[in-house]
Amino acid sequence: MPVTFSYALRPVVINAAKPKEHYARKWVEETLFYRSAAYRAQQLRWLEAHVFPVIGQQNLNAITPRDVLRVVEPLRETANTAESVRALIQRVFSYAIRNLAAESNPALMVRGAIVVPKKTHHLHLLEPELARFWRLIPRQGAHFTTLVAAQMLFYTMVRVRRCRHAWTCQGSGLAVSM
Questions:
Q1: How far apart are CA 112 and CA 72, in angstroms?
Q2: 135: helix, coil or strand?
Q3: Helix or strand or coil: residue 125?
Q4: Are 56 and 94 spatial neighbours (Cβ–Cβ below 8 Å)?
Q5: How many CB atoms lie within 10 A of CB 22?
Q6: Handedness of CA 131, 132, 133, 139 (dihedral sign)
Q7: How distant, in Å, are the alpha carbons of 55, 132, 142 from that of 135?
Q8: Nearest one of 2, 27, 4, 26 to 15, comparing CA atoms
Q9: pLDDT confidence tier of residue 72, bands split at 50, 70 and 90
Q10: CB 160 within 8 A of CB 153
Q11: What tens digit of pLDDT does each residue of 103-149 get?
């Protein structure tokens, strides 16, 4: 039976029989409006590529922790992506719980199932290594703007954030995204 309640001063009708894909798309629309279009697109890509094919058509209350593991297991080789997808599922379920469409969050129950390796920070390059690094930048195969940005960072030795700010603040109207 649909439940009607007021959320943010507007009536919302929640039907618990709707599939996960419905709530995931609604979550992106209603909660990520303040994020950049690129971020919203990335979240939708992850949902469409990893989540919807496995559990997208199941009802929210029928999804179990085992189902969430079926989504993240194929991503185990890329542990950061697997954990990000699991956290994404968790946020969608939290949204559904707040709207009384789900009773539990199965993604929360499998937190820690994918072990994300600790980040390793590398030492700075020594002077002899810098020349080799500089010669290898163009052969790296990245997009042209990424190559130019890397070279600009190298010349100016500023942080990426400052570099982006400088590029977008130039009067030419050109904004380069990295």
A1: 11
A2: helix
A3: coil
A4: no
A5: 17
A6: positive
A7: 47, 5, 14
A8: 2
A9: very high
A10: yes
A11: 999 999 999 888 888 888 878 778 788 788 878 878 877 788 888 88
- Alpha carbons 159 and 8: distance in angstroms, whole number: 40
Alpha-carbon span 120 to 144, nearest angstrom? 27
Tell if the pTM clears 0.70, that is, is over it: no
- For 27, the token pair is 């979550």
Encode 84-116: b = buried (16+ Cβ within 10 Å), e = exposed.
bbbebbbbbbbbbeebebbeebbbbebeebbee
Q: How far is CA 27 from CA 16, 53, 95, in A?
A: 15, 18, 7
End-to-end CA distance of the chain: 48
Show the tokens assigned to 112: 């820690």
Q: What is the CA radius of gyration of the chain?
A: 22
Phi, psi of 40 (to 5 degrees): -60, -40
In the DSSP assignment, the letter for residue 101 is S
Task: Mention every residue, 6+ apart, whose C-beta is less than 8 A from residue 30.
Answer: 95
